[in-house]
Amino acid sequence: MLVFKRRNNNDQTLDDMVTSEQINRKLAEKVLSTFDSCINNALSTKAKNKTTFKAEKLRAYRFCDNVWTFVMDNAEFKDNIRSVEGKVERVKFVACEASGSKNKTTHQ
């Protein structure tokens, strides 16, 4: 749930700034949008490691509006760069196609 934690922390901080009138709502939304775009770009171009996982139980899954959601119990992660020990009691993955990432074929 790292992404959700990040999003909640950013949301809370930006909401506090909007409430105290340090920034307006439109700027807060632009900050979140820019952050998401930069993170997606960095992950697709700079991330070199691969992480695999195995869970004891798939608690729930859903596909709605081109968004997959998986909730798993007792998930164990393995990373090819660093050691990851222990199990995560519950993990939720939400996956969707990034905008502009449609499979495009080019003809030469």
TrEMBL record:
Keyword Isomerase on entry? no
**GO:BP terms for this protein?**
transcription initiation at RNA polymerase II promoter
Q: Boundaries of each Transcription initiation factor IIA gamma subunit N-terminal domain copy?
A: 12-43
Keywords linked to the UniProt accession: Nucleus, Transcription, Transcription regulation
Q: Which SUPFAM superfamilies match?
A: Transcription factor IIA (TFIIA), alpha-helical domain, Transcription factor IIA (TFIIA), beta-barrel domain
Ranges for domain Transcription initiation factor IIA gamma subunit C-terminal come to: 57-98
Per the record, the similarity remark reads:
Belongs to the TFIIA subunit 2 family.
Name this polypeptide is given: Transcription initiation factor IIA subunit 2
